[in-house]
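Subject: Protein record for review, amino acid sequence with backbone structure tokens
Why sent: The fold of this protein is of interest and is recorded here as tokens.
Notation: Tokens come from a learned vocabulary of local backbone shapes, not from coordinates.
Attached in line: The record itself begins immediately under this heading.
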Amino acid sequence: MSERTEEYAAARHRERERSAWIGWIWFGAVMLVLLGLFTVIFGLVALFQENYYVVGPEGLLVFDLTGWGWIHLILGALATAAGFALFSGAAWARVTAVVLAALNAISQFAFLPAYPVWSLIAIALDVLVMWAIVVHGRELGD
């Protein structure tokens, strides 16, 4: 085989590898947008429907429902924006998305007493989003 043919074959192999994994980044971006929108909704519910979430006598970690409502509202809006920015493939968007997914997971952990099922689902999805971006993020930027 000539050197040019080997280079072409190697380039095709890299392209196939790249295209096979880029779906994870798109998945991460879409999931981050959805998680952000759901987090915004939960923040709005905490702000406007005080009796929706039931908190036991031990209460919530650090803040009351209104405080967590604002935190969820702001984090959700930022995560949604970061999810859309992730489609650009920019390195800053990947870093921002991972940081916001981590912050969202932490905020969901603190919100466990109020809404445990959703909080556990959100934490699992945040971890999956972080994994997809960290492990396969470079393919989107190439």
